[in-house]
C-alpha cells in the first residue's frame, strides 16, 4: 500500500518517516517502502535477496521495458503479481522474455505464490544461477 502511495506521489518518504508508528511491524513496512517497487511482491523479493546477500538493481530499462530486477549484468528477474493471469499478459511476457534472451540475458520469472510462500525455492534458484555465472556477461 505504501509503495503504491509513494509511486503515485500521494505521500513521500519523509512523511512516512515522521509518522509515530505504534506497531513495530508498521514501522518496518514503512521503512522498506520505496518508489522502485511496483508492488508488495517486489519489495518482499528485494528483502529476500538482501537477506541472502544478493544485490539487485530495480527497474532497469532494457529493450524499452523495465526489469523488476537485474542481478549483475545479465540475470533478469521478472515478478508476476497475484492477479497476473490474463492470457494477453502472459503472451506479452513470453515475447519480452524471448527478446531478452536474444540480447544475452537470462530470465528468471517468479510469481506471487513462489516469492511469498516458497522463498527458499526462489533464493536457491537465484543462488544456483549465480553459481553458474548467469549474472555475468558472456
Automatic annotation (TrEMBL):
<protein>
    <submittedName>
        <fullName>Endonuclease domain-containing protein</fullName>
    </submittedName>
</protein>
<feature type="domain" description="DUF559">
    <location>
        <begin position="52"/>
        <end position="130"/>
    </location>
</feature>
<keyword id="KW-0255">Endonuclease</keyword>
<dbReference type="InterPro" id="IPR011335">
    <property type="entry name" value="Restrct_endonuc-II-like"/>
</dbReference>
<dbReference type="Pfam" id="PF04480">
    <property type="entry name" value="DUF559"/>
</dbReference>
<dbReference type="InterPro" id="IPR007569">
    <property type="entry name" value="DUF559"/>
</dbReference>
<keyword id="KW-0540">Nuclease</keyword>
<dbReference type="GO" id="GO:0004519">
    <property type="term" value="F:endonuclease activity"/>
</dbReference>
<keyword id="KW-0378">Hydrolase</keyword>
Amino acid at each position: 500500500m505504501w509503495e503504491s502511495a509513494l509511486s503515485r506521489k500521494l505521500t513521500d518518504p519523509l512523511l512516512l518517516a515522521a509518522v509515530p508508528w505504534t506497531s513495530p511491524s508498521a514501522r518496518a513496512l514503512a521503512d522498506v517502502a520505496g518508489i522502485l517497487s511496483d508492488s508488495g511482491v517486489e519489495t518482499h523479493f528485494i528483502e529476500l535477496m538482501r537477506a541472502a546477500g544478493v544485490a539487485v538493481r530495480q527497474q532497469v530499462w532494457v529493450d524499452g521495458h523495465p526489469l523488476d530486477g537485474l542481478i549483475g549484468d545479465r540475470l533478469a528477474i521478472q515478478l508476476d503479481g497475484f492477479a497476473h493471469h490474463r492470457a494477453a499478459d502472459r503472451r506479452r511476457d513470453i515475447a519480452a522474455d524471448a527478446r531478452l534472451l536474444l540480447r544475452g540475458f537470462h530470465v528468471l520469472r517468479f510469481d506471487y505464490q513462489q516469492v511469498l510462500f516458497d522463498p527458499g525455492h526462489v533464493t536457491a534458484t537465484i543462488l544456483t544461477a549465480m553459481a553458474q555465472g548467469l549474472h555475468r556477461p558472456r
